[in-house]
Design a protein that fits this description.
heterodimer, A: alpha/beta, Rossmann fold, 2 domains, 11 helices, 36% helix, B: mainly alpha, Nod_factor_ABC_transporter (chain B), transmembrane (chain B), transmembrane helix (chain B), ABC-type transporter activity (chain B), ABC transporter permease (chain B)
């Protein structure tokens, strides 16, 4: 279910200097409570600049409208922004880094509880008293996220949040973002890999040459993409194999499957000593969509 | 009491508490960084002590004048207290080294609270150095003290605050740490030289002495000289600190106008 719009940008144009080349041209985006917008675009498309303009953290010439509706919360408390570059003081411990922002944004009285909550949420308990310069890149990324959202903002912007994360940490971020959505937080996420956008987002916005294209809900974007039906198994030499039977939309796959005589391929495989392990229907992925979009 | 008095006073009390909280946050973080990095301790405390011990009054042109060693020590203390320019500038650049500048731009704290919090630890360190060295010189190096410690403290506070304001200004108008560091060392040496911290001003050429009037060092040493070898007159001390504070106000005002939380710097290392 789509919640109310918390942050809305309409017709945003931005250039870093007067007379300079525009980085954004008529870009529009809406962040709704309980929804997560994935911002997809090639390198240099203007993703980070758009996030900077939405948070008003970049200096330049901006045109268009930017509306924030966060109730009684002041802007600094309403928006959390985890930048692409990890922003932490290396000589400070995890707790001190997170605490610095908690105290700045929430005041001394609420900071302690907020830090404890963030450390638990991001599973940082075992390294809470470790100085940041002793941590791995992935651990620093998690601390950076924890510090960015320690004040529990209803709008959260994440620029490439999965960079340097190992599988476990990446899964944690995916779980957290889904949890935030369930709590009614509005999320905007950019990522290098379409797989990440796919796991972290419910809506998709394409940014190309500084202009946005709202592609709507991710599910409907993917439902029009091709699926692949294939067989997978092992050969007599135990080498695994995969045989594509049909590619296309769900209806196309069904139709093509009907054209294959039921026992032909399976009997061929059996005769040559192959063993069938599974039948695989691959769902459409955002990767193929991104590849096609970039190629266009 | 007017019905609006309470909400008004509550609002200003909240604003005051908010301001103090912001200053405290930045100051605490800066203090932790400075304390753990150690280099500030070396430059502010150890270097002037070592130079005083090695060079003593030899470079100052005082040779065996009464209290010469103590006077030279004060000169080096004043000179190196101005490392506060470098460390204050670095405190602001730190957010670019560690990519935390975007956060300040998002949070947008009060410029004044941010600036005070950032420079407070380096200021406190330099101030403590000045008091410590003056006290040491008075007790162990025959430096006379005709005024009182309050006058020393007032002069020292004005001097280090002027250095911090200058550090803030250099940060605001430069684009890289290297530029800031070079400029601040240039300031440290030239201000100390023409202001009389290295060589007594009487030994300087006339044009250098004229330049010296434009430096906080000259006025700080004038006040300290009054407190030590002079008669400890408050008029001289207050006049000197007023000049230093005027210098501070100009630097801080220009820095505040030039500084924007959304500024980008070229080097982030």
């Amino acid at each position: 279910m789509r919640g109310p719009v918390l942050l809305s940008a309409e017709g945003l144009s931005f250039s870093y200097a007067a007379g300079g080349a525009p980085v954004l041209r008529e870009a529009s985006i809406r962040l709704r409570a309980g929804a997560s917008v994935g911002l997809l675009g090639a390198n240099g498309a203007g993703k980070t600049t758009l996030l900077g303009v939405l948070t008003r953290t970049v200096r330049g010439i901006t045109r268009g409208s930017l509306l924030l509706d966060a109730g009684v919360l002041p802007e600094r408390r309403a928006i959390g922004y985890a930048t692409q570059a990890i922003g932490l003081y290396p000589m400070l411990t995890v707790e001190e880094n997170v605490g610095h922002l908690a105290r700045l944004l929430l005041g001394r009285s609420q900071a302690r509880a907020a830090v404890a909550r963030a450390i638990e949420e991001f599973s940082l308990g075992s390294i809470a008293r470790t100085r940041v310069h002793h941590l791995s890149g992935g651990q620093r990324r998690l601390v950076h996220l924890a510090a960015s959202f320690v004040h529990g903002p209803p709008i959260r912007l994440l620029d490439e949040p999965t960079v340097a994360l190992d599988f476990e940490a990446r899964q944690l971020v995916v779980k957290l973002v889904r949890g935030w959505r369930a709590e009614g937080v509005a999320v905007l996420v950019t990522a290098h890999y379409p797989e990440d956008i796919e796991e972290l987002s419910t809506e998709l916005v394409l940014l190309r040459d500084g202009t946005t294209r709202d592609l709507g809900e991710l599910g409907s974007v993917l439902s029009n993409r091709a699926r692949t039906l294939s067989l997978r198994g092992d050969s007599p030499t135990s080498a695994s194999w995969e045989l594509t039977l049909a590619t296309g939309t769900l209806d196309e796959v069904r139709a093509k499957l009907g054209e294959i005589p039921p026992d032909v391929r399976l009997s061929e495989l059996r005769l040559s000593g192959n063993r069938l392990r599974d039948i695989l229907l691959r769902d459409p992925s955002l990767s193929s969509f991104a590849e096609e979009t970039e190629a266009r | 009491m007017s019905p609006h008095a309470l909400p008004g006073s509550t609002a200003s009390a909240n604003a005051g508490a908010h301001f103090v909280n912001e200053v405290g946050c930045y100051a605490l973080t800066e203090w932790r960084v400075l304390w753990r990095e150690r280099t500030a301790m070396v430059f502010i405390f150890i270097l002037p002590a070592v130079l005083s011990a090695i060079l003593g009054p030899g470079v100052s042109g005082l040779d065996s004048a009464p209290g010469a060693m103590g006077r030279a020590t004060i000169g080096f203390a004043v000179m190196f207290s101005y490392m506060v320019v470098t460390y204050s500038g670095h405190a602001f650049y730190r957010d670019f080294w560690y990519h935390t500048s975007g956060r300040q731009a998002l949070i947008r704290p009060s410029k004044l609270a941010f600036a005070i919090g950032k420079v407070l630890p380096a200021c406190a360190m330099s101030f403590a150095q000045l008091l410590l060295f003056t006290g040491f010189a008075a007790v162990f190096l025959d430096l006379p003290l005709h005024g009182n410690l309050l006058q020393v403290a007032l002069t020292g506070a004005a001097l280090v605050v002027s250095g911090s304001a200058l550090g803030f200004l250099l940060f605001a108008v430069t684009r890289s740490t290297a530029t800031l560091s070079n400029l601040s060392y240039l300031v440290l040496v030239t201000f100390s030289a023409v202001g009389g911290a290295i060589v007594v001003t009487d030994a300087l050429p006339a044009w250098s002495r004229t330049l010296g009037y434009a430096t906080p060092h000259y006025w700080a040493l004038r006040a300290l000289h009054e407190v030590t070898f002079g008669e400890g007159r408050w008029g001289v001390v207050l006049q000197s600190t007023a000049v230093i504070l005027a210098f501070t106000a100009v630097c801080a005002a220009v820095a505040s106008l030039a500084f924007d939380f959304r500024d980008q710097k070229h080097d982030t290392t």
